[in-house]
Amino acid sequence: MSRIGRAVVAGAGLIGTSIALALREHGVEVRLSDPDPAALRLACDLGAGGPFDPAADRPADIAIIAAPPSAVPAVLRDIQDRGLAHVYTDAASVKDGVITEAERLGCDLSTFVPGHPMGGREKSGPSAARSDLFLGRSWALCPTGKTDPGAVATVTELARICGAEPLTIDAAAHDRAVALVSHAPHVASAAVAARLLGADTAALALAGQGLRDVTRIAGGDPHLWVEILRHNAGPVAQVLQEVAADLAGAARALRAADPAGAPVQGLLDRGRRGHDAIPGKHGAQRTPDYAVVPVVIPDEPNALGRLFAAAGEAGINIEDVRIDHSPGLPVGVAQLSVLPGAVADLARALAERGWSVHA
Amino acid sequence: MSRIGRAVVAGAGLIGTSIALALREHGVEVRLSDPDPAALRLACDLGAGGPFDPAADRPADIAIIAAPPSAVPAVLRDIQDRGLAHVYTDAASVKDGVITEAERLGCDLSTFVPGHPMGGREKSGPSAARSDLFLGRSWALCPTGKTDPGAVATVTELARICGAEPLTIDAAAHDRAVALVSHAPHVASAAVAARLLGADTAALALAGQGLRDVTRIAGGDPHLWVEILRHNAGPVAQVLQEVAADLAGAARALRAADPAGAPVQGLLDRGRRGHDAIPGKHGAQRTPDYAVVPVVIPDEPNALGRLFAAAGEAGINIEDVRIDHSPGLPVGVAQLSVLPGAVADLARALAERGWSVHA
């Protein structure tokens, strides 16, 4: 039997509304609250649930605090005092400081399961919410020694309802992990992008897809990121210091005309192995099993649609696609990933239909 | 009238063979040479031209040296001495050192137009060549004060035949530009990826699309990159030193609990503005004009094909697509870019056909 029939979501922003939408899709009764009445109304209008009514409501099975890290402990204390739910969790992207502060405020840690669903978007607010925001993502659970196992089971079910993979991890280890895989890479991306300020037009015209990839996340909201970094300062500083030392060492070695030693060649070797360690699709190691078939796509109506239709008619499943943009010219290249055995059939089928295939 | 009827390509690797294929598609007679007979034979079998015959051939309109930077000057001197062509160019990714060395070797700089087509792939060798490798890319031309204007006109035509945009730029400015937009970002990507070595599985399971983007180019061949960095050591070292200083400063400010000052918030602000300065599709500034429609795609045969067919049936042109991989679960999300006015029609058409649309 389901542990979650009724839920309270405190915070109707992107994360809270997305969780609420997923719960609603699974028939859970959801009550929402938010200090901003407009956000609350919008989330309710989007079908995320009804507004929380302190007079009428009996305790819910779970309360989810979807608020910034600095707000979570006080909200937790408040709603625990009011007995709003049997189990409590949060969705803040840092965990160690939240737990320390919750303990300092005298929160009941037995019913609180610190959590962090790994979904997000560039946009924010309830209007950006999606019930599938956490689909296929990891959902970190950071129970402490005081956490009741039944509470962990309830939050595990919450993660599964949202389509995520629950992953139990110590809070400090979680914070070090997100410093490594998210927070420090964000700052590094910004540092590379910051060098482009003041570069002349001709230099920027030489930019390719590599630079676009490295700097994409530097387009995120600086204010939001400052808040995240503030709460995970130590672990992020540690990673940034190591990255800075590697880059300074590479610069020194290049000036000393020593590109073949550890500071440059060794760093590139380690970088490639680190890159290969990132899990790919379906949680597995990156699958090098797909073959990539480049196809020229003209900039005309429904070109991609016709391309995929042609592949479909040939009975070939496209596993992934990447579009290489073509600065300066009205054409692009679609890189189609297919099973290696399908390359010849795909190339033939597309060529027969007039596509410029480069398999 | 065309300036290029006959061409010699010295070097049958990825770049040389790709240029040769593009020339052949435009009816140019191409003769190839390569120190590796197997590479030469493969390039010829691929339709890139015939093998160079020193006894039979009269001077070509242009000779393209597609060799590593360290090999270009000696090859240039050799083929100029043999009078193989009226105009000479190269395709090495660094330019200042090549010109200096060519001058030292006594090459004729009036007929030599140093060049750098901005195309490339992760793979190398003639088998990876594509006639469209430079389609829509910039093609840097770095004439010196000694270069004959007629020679520049010929190499400009070469770039256009290959579908690229010729861009005239001073050699030293070129080298600083590629350090900024390509070489230093590569090392920075490797330095972020190198931190992942030794991270435990749980930490890596928290990795999202942002980390994948930042570290993608770190998967490139370290040996190839060491050669590139060796020939552009000074400009790359300068950029890396500045990035390292910014990251070290951010680390210090985070340890000092000062995330709102210039070293962190200021760096993120500059990073966002630098990111926004990168030209996007069709050489224009990034177009924020497309709306993105997320659609859940099941992991089943031809799911993407059916999705694009449905959009095509509804008469809607998909301008771009990105697939968000879903570690751990057999589903993904296709982010479809369409004109804002088409969002409602697309969402309705897809929903009618049973797709889970999140517009």
Question: How would you characterize this protein structure?
Answer:
The structure is a homodimer of 359-residue chains. Chain A is of the alpha/beta class and 359 residues long. The first copy, chain A, has three domains: 6-169, NAD(P)-binding Rossmann-like Domain (Rossmann fold, 3-Layer(aba) Sandwich); 174-281, 6-phosphogluconate dehydrogenase C-terminal like domain (6-phosphogluconate dehydrogenase C-terminal fold, Orthogonal Bundle), CATH 1.10.3660; 291-357, 2-Layer Sandwich (Alpha-Beta Plaits), CATH 3.30.70. Helix content of chain A is 44%, strand content 17%. Chain A contains 13 helices and 13 strands. Chain A has helices spanning 14-25, 37-45, 72-81, 96-104, 149-161, 171-194, 201-205, 209-215, 222-231, 233-255, 262-276, 303-313, 343-352, and strands spanning 6-10, 29-33, 50-51, 60-65, 85-90, 112-113, 115-117, 138-141, 165-168, 291-298, 320-324, 331-338, 356-357. The first copy, chain A, has a six-stranded parallel sheet, with helices on both faces. In chain A, strand 5, helix 4 (96-104) and strand 6 (112-113) form a beta-alpha-beta unit. The first copy, chain A, is globular, with a radius of gyration of 24 Å. The interface between A and B is large, with 137 and 137 residues.
